[in-house]
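WARN no homologs supplied; continuing
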Amino acid sequence: MHCQTSQICRRQIQRSMELDRIWRRMSDKKLTIRQRWRKAITADNIVDFSVDVFLIVFDVLSSPILIVMRVIRWLLAKFINQHVKNFIKKIVHWFIDNRKIRLQKRQNIFRYYWYLWLLSPVILIVLLLIVAFTTGIYEGIKELG
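OK structure emitted
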């Protein structure tokens, strides 16, 4: 009798595990935007979002200079991202294109870029001076403020 009940229990557990597996497989299907939105809107998320918005609005309204500073920071970040990334990409593509030319001419890297090897100490010193100059300007502005 005990053996029969344990077999029945095992079958029930196996059925429930199989049903769980099927349910998980069905729940893995891709949700629509509306379903994801409904799933995301919970009381906790609404409270968190409203508190965050209130803190940001209060912070901005309490000191209007932050609006100006955030806009300037955003513009500088946009400028730096756009121009510096493009500059670096141009350098990388220049090296890639010249590599193809160099390989066609069957020249090694030292022979092809001899002027860069000679100018590299000058380039490094100029970069060091630029970093030192900007650091000095930054420290000077910090002392004034």
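The chain has a mean pLDDT of 79.
OK
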